[in-house]
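Usage

Read records sequentially. Each one opens with the input sequence:
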Amino acid sequence: MNCKKYINLLFSGTSNYIKYATVTILSALENLQENVGINVYFLYADIIEPIDEDVKNAWIEQVLYTFRDKNVNFNFIDVSDKMHLVENLNIGMWGREISLTHYIYLLAPLIIKNVDKIIYLDCDMIVNYGLSEVFDNDMGDNLIALAKQHGFELDEEDFNSGFSVINLKQWIKEDTLTDIIKFGEQLPKSDFCDQYLLNEYFGKTHSNRIMLFDKKYNLFPITYPELNLSEIKILHYAGPNIKPWYDLDCNYRGSFLWWQYARETVFYESFIADYIMHHRLCIEDWMSKDYNEKIGDCYNRINDCHNRINDCQNIMNVCLNRISGCEKWLSKCFETVDKHYKKSIEYIFLFRPFEILVKMLIIVKLKIFEQL
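and closes with the structure output:
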């Protein structure tokens, strides 16, 4: 089909995220008018771990096959040689390599030429309306458009960086990327990487160069439950624990939409396999932790018992020493009695039975302690 126009979409990450971006692209395409196509730019840098070229090419082939009869043009661009430009920017909670991948899309002005503007989307999004609406907005000399007031992760007046419309023509004209990088290198540490950078740069120091969209254009499933699914423009499954490809039971709002589009891609079986492997690893990890906790608990209890046994032994030793002392004292007493009253009738009938009784009690007590 011949399209009257195309909108430009930008994705970024490591190359293994190509298959997740495929679902987002499909959701965007199926919500566009029939005469509107998409130009996709996927910028990647495999800096977390190396990915074999054959595997990477296989993923690209599968993407192209998924959209073989659709109005989508693809540009897969390796930007590894440009990652040094962002290496001094803030490193977040995910560690150095993962944090640096969050800045990849900001390199677009250096790579994508002859494109006036482009919509950036995170790979964990589902588009639920026609993106032409935001793409056709006249940005004037504004550098970027973002959705504000999330009420999650950041303050109400901050925005999430997963969705933006970037005025590439203006960025190139003003060399905005160089200015943002210099600005970002001076920022204090934060866990949110590119998000923190954009909030500080556009939300505070360049607030006159930003267009704002409603929160519905970048909404987390766990926020604003009062909104119907049909009212939400873009669902964003941000965070490691709510990714739709790990939510086969569709416990999160709109997860079923992600799986609906996933079934239309050639990656569907791969997503199922990933789901199984992820939950298998989670179960194994849980079982391992539970086992270690139980072993640790048993070890602590054994130590506690051992300490108590030692305490008992110490008490027994004290008692035995005292009994031994008493026995010696009694022996001296009886020696004295024997010496002075040996020939006495009273000794025979009174003291001797008492001596025998005391000695018997001592012997019984000693036997009891020996058994303990």
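Summary fields computed downstream for this record:
- Strands lie at 5-13, 36-44, 72-78, 118-121, 125-127, 144-148, 159-166, 210-213, 234-236.
- The chain has two domains: 5-266, 308-371.
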